Amino acid sequence: MRIGSESLVPGPSAMLSLMLALLLLFTAARAWADEFDTLNFDAGMTVITDSNLFRLSATADPNTVLGRSSTADSINVTSLGVRLAKPYSLQRFELSASLVDYRYDKARFLNFSAFNYSAAWRWNLTPRFKGSISSDRSETLNSFVDFRAFVRNVRIQENHRFNAEYEVDGVWRVIGGLAQSKSQNERLFLQQQDFKSNVAEGGIKYAFTNGSTVSAVIRAQDGEFFKLTQPQAASFFDNKFKQSEQEARLFWLFSGKSSLDARLAYIDRRHPNFSQRDFSGVVGNANWNWGITGKTRLVTSVSRELGSFVQPSSSYTRVDRLSVGPAWEVSSKALVRARVDVSTRDFLGPVTNTALNGRSDTLRTLYLGMDWRPFRWATMSASLQHDKRSSNQAGLDFASTQVTLAARLTF
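User: That's the sequence. What structure does it adopt?
Assistant: Structure tokens below.
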């Protein structure tokens, strides 16, 4: 396949890697894995070919930006992982960890290896008093959709959570939790700076007999941009923030074939030194999952989110998204999925008058994929994704196409 003059067919090294992964799959026929096993190991190989890795505008000259004529690249992703799940009386312990290696064919300065993990204790002190303690860590490359310096910038995200739920009677529950998060970039990313935050929440939940629930939660967050020891008056960059949130959530089972998961919240973020950066508003989402037949399903989602994006021309973004995704179970071993996304992203809350004030982007995504599980220990997948962004600011539009081939072995 070609997009413009760039071939999206994986190159020889990528094909060799994929063939090796397939060989490993089919020579491990005795390495059965069962979903009820206490301990499982994973090995995977993914080959991604991207027609526009750095998300450059069609008007940009790659030679000027990258020093080479092409912005297309292939990425080989190799992963090794372990998963542990152990129930003990009313408790359940879960652990997963993985090493993921990313190798770029042309942009080798982006190569990196990631260590990711997640761990959880699903605890029950009594059948009516339960909750979880969990922790996770992930390393990912910042997308060039927002990070416009064409160097490697890996982000490390860490989360630690405690949640509890007490059943007062047959239908009412009291819920609460504590959370701590930390996000750190390898390089300076002014728009999305390194931060850490602490969150406390509490609320009530009503559980219907059919499995549906409705809940209300109040949430308070204290955040700190820990690499800024002092506020930056010249750029209105604060080093702290407080955010409050009032949330209502509904999960409703209409029948055995459809369900609705909806959230509506009001958030209010305040900065102690520069009120110009404050923002507030209504956010939420609604996801409707409809089983049309026994083998076909449709997921439709709408959402609005507000998020910090600090620069002279904006303090935050508002993203409105619509997504429609059908899925067809071709057989017990094969699933075909598709998705159409349209989102509008407005950059709001400017603190100075610049040429980028009032920026608005529209991103359209088309996705088609297939998962094939020839054996219970082997999964193969292939997908095609096309993204196109338009903007009212010059030079911020782009189009990209990704072809992904993956193979995974569980034993």
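Residues 12-26 form the longest helix (15 residues).
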